[in-house]
Amino acid sequence: MNLKKYIVSSFVLVSLAAVLSLTAQDLANKKDHQGPPILGPHWAKGIHPARSGGSPDMTSHGGPVLTSTTAQAIFWGTSWATSAGDKITGMDNWYEGFGGSNYAKTSDEYSGTNGQVTATVSYGGHFVDGTKASGGGSTSAILAEVCKVIPNPVSNGYYAVYTDIPRKGNYCAYHSWGSCGSTQVQFAFFWKLDGDAGCDPESAVAGESQGLAAIANVSGHELSEARTDPRGTGWFDSSGAENGDKCAWTFNVPYVTFRNGTRWKTQGEWSNQAYDSSTGYPNSSGQHGCLDGH
Fold first, then answer.
1. Closest by Cα among 198, 123, 183 to 153
2. Which end of the chain has the least Cβ crowding within 10 Å, N or C?
3. Higher model confidence: residue 31 or residue 270?
């Protein structure tokens, strides 16, 4: 055997294996780092992720909350300019009435490293981006849209991205967080839910379309979660469920009235205090910890 040839060949094979291994690792890292994780997905009706045992109460995980919130909406997609229906004006009314409402106050019991959640939620209006929207599979794409459209993002900002793409998956919406330059922001993603039975609250409130009622309900879920768990280190239970998750698809009254007098069929939000004192209404597991501020 030519020992020199054997050593060279072995070196080439080992080096090639190392390169292939590194390439595979790099690809895996690229796949695993498409952006921050999805938090608090509002699962469609009938989708029940496995929950671990333990106390129903949520606990703090050592991070911040939103002590006050500055909200803005982005309507992203080619059809918003021509076929928005009542959804843009309706959601403007929803956000304008949310701040200071009894519904918003259902999350005020939670605190973080930076203070206490309050019902101070101001609305800075909406933007329409008529370019082709991205789906919700990449949180990076949604974050990039926020950073492109919002001229002056703020660290307590909550930026809700409503697309004109019908649902493609088991969730109706989600929230997450990231950075626009050096500014950390919170954002949320919403599918178009017109005619979507899996994400329909079946509202009987007069004067609103089914599509508006659907995104309004899931908006209550995501905004409440973003205020109490903005960056994945806030409040959730032992199974990872946030306050919106724990009361999803449970309604105590036909509608909740917001501060500006608008009415919405909106799910409740989980309250540790209500559960511990047995003063809430039951969620889908029969745990009396949901409040809607009606």
1. 183
2. N
3. 270
